């Protein structure tokens, strides 16, 4: 057996490919130029796998970013891979990493469709797994999320999840695989880097074997999921319906946990873990025909002896055009009220105030689409709405629930979030409709009460 074949990295890669990709498939490979992704690229080369290499250049580090790109392009050519490099301009106001990840995966998925590839492959490794589990624990995520990231999820393939960062560094040195280090990864600005550089060295001192213990949590999470599956089977009528009587007989804490499991098994679009206890309690008194709205897309409906998860009709979410006189007649649009009021210079929480003189009617209320831009209040220049929602920490699953208000002249004067944010804001007003000392009347937007 050769040195390459006996490497723990090679063996882990082979095992993962054999387990999850039994057939010869085409891949989109995300390669940054760092040691992890360059090791992945080398393995794809050695095993003669069909892949298109994709490199995202965020242009944050000047010439160093250009050197990263040139390295990936050079080695891709040397190992006979087609390479697509994409240069991006940072449009994130706050959370660059979230913005960068979203943009990166949008590009991966677009190229997957263009090249008709089967999977997107990335170089996530065991250290990434540990960091992910720890972050989810510290943020209060449910036990099932402690499974961490999986080797294969939908269209993503991660063949190095069982390999540590130390093993990868040894591998690239041993086989003279060129790579570059992004110095920003050495900073403790971001959550992962804080864990990596501040927590982990101390953990090794005080808790020997802590890494293995964290990884064992994946097994506990899977055990929990299996038990939840068995309980759910006993109270579920079908994929989107619960047998009410049997469900209500469950102990209160178990009932809440099973409700979360039921919703998660039916759709990935809803994040309700923080409010699940109150939702579970409200189901007790819910009358037949009544419902509890979970998001702008879903609601739980009491239908005699069943509790059903219903998707709200897309017809109710069609674009709505409103004349000024319509505002005094309609009750709500997309769950929000709009009214015209005299302006007294005061502002209330959970309400947006637009200078009426700067709003050209009729206005259109619609869901945002790719490419929509606006100028957030207090910001110079415009921003993609998709980036704005990311910066305001609206999850990917809920982004599609956001909507906007567009004036007759095509100006987007407000973006409304699918739920109140952590700072209790319902949305963001555009700078173009900012109120001033000259404002006489305002268009007021608020949640339906």
UniProtKB/TrEMBL annotation:
GO cellular component annotations of the record: cytoplasm
Catalytic activity: cytidine(34) in tRNA(Ile2) + L-lysine + ATP = lysidine(34) in tRNA(Ile2) + AMP + diphosphate + H(+)
Domain Lysidine-tRNA(Ile) synthetase C-terminal: 363-445
Keyword Membrane recorded: no
Keyword set, alphabetical order: ATP-binding, Cytoplasm, Ligase, Nucleotide-binding, tRNA processing
Major location (coarse): cytoplasm
Residues the record lists as binding ATP: 32-37
UniProt record, GO biological process: tRNA modification
Coiled-coil intervals: none
UniProt-annotated location(s): Cytoplasm
Cell cycle keyword on record: no
E.C. code: 6.3.4.19
GO MF annotation terms: ATP binding; tRNA(Ile)-lysidine synthase activity
Domain notes: The N-terminal region contains the highly conserved SGGXDS motif, predicted to be a P-loop motif involved in ATP binding.
Entry similarity comment: Belongs to the tRNA(Ile)-lysidine synthase family.
Its biological purpose: Ligates lysine onto the cytidine present at position 34 of the AUA codon-specific tRNA(Ile) that contains the anticodon CAU, in an ATP-dependent manner. Cytidine is converted to lysidine, thus changing the amino acid specificity of the tRNA from methionine to isoleucine.
The name this protein goes by in its record: tRNA(Ile)-lysidine synthase
Species of the source: Rhodohalobacter barkolensis
């Amino acid at each position: 057996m050769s040195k390459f074949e006996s490497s723990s990295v090679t063996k882990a890669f082979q095992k993962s490919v054999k387990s999850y990709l039994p057939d010869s498939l085409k891949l989109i490979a995300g390669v940054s130029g760092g040691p992890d992704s360059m090791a992945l690229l080398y393995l794809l080369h050695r095993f003669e796998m069909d892949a298109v290499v994709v490199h995202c250049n965020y242009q944050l580090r000047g010439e160093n970013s250009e050197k990263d790109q040139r390295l990936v392009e050079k080695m891709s050519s040397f190992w006979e891979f087609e390479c697509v490099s994409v240069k991006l301009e940072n449009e994130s106001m706050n959370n660059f990493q979230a913005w960068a990840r979203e943009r990166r995966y949008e590009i991966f998925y677009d190229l997957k469709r263009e090249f008709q590839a089967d999977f997107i492959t990335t170089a996530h490794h065991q250290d990434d797994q540990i960091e992910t589990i720890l972050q989810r624990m510290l943020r209060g995520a449910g036990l099932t999320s402690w499974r961490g990231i999986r080797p294969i999820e939908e269209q993503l393939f991660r063949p190095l999840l069982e390999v540590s960062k130390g093993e990868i560094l040894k591998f690239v040195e041993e086989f003279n695989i060129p790579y570059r280090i992004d110095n920003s990864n050495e900073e403790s600005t971001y959550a992962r880097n804080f864990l990596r550089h501040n927590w982990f060295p101390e953990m090794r001192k005080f808790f020997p074997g802590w890494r293995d213990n964290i990884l064992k949590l994946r097994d506990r999470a899977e055990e929990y999921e299996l038990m939840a599956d068995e309980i759910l089977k006993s109270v579920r009528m079908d994929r989107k319906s619960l047998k009410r009587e049997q469900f209500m007989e469950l102990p209160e804490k178990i009932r809440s946990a099973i409700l979360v499991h039921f919703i998660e098994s039916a759709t990935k679009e809803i994040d309700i873990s923080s409010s699940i206890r109150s939702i579970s309690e409200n189901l007790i008194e819910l009358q037949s025909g009544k419902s509890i709205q979970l998001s702008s897309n879903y609601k739980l409906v009491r239908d005699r002896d069943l509790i059903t998860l219903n998707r709200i009709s897309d017809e109710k979410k069609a674009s709505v055009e409103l004349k000024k006189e319509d505002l005094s007649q309609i009750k709500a649009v997309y769950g929000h009220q709009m009214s015209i009021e005299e302006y007294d210079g005061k502002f209330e929480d959970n309400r947006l105030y637009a200078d009426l003189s700067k709003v050209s009617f009729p206005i259109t209320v619609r869901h945002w689409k790719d490419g929509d831009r606006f100028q957030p209040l207090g910001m110079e220049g415009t921003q993609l709405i998709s980036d704005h929602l990311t910066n305001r920490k609206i999850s990917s699953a809920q982004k599609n629930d956001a909507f906007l208000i567009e004036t007759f002249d095509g100006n987007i004067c407000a973006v409304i979030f699918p739920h109140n944010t952590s700072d209790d804001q319902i949305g963001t007003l555009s700078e173009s409709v900012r109120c001033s000392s000259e404002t006489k009347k305002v268009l007021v937007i608020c949640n339906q009460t």
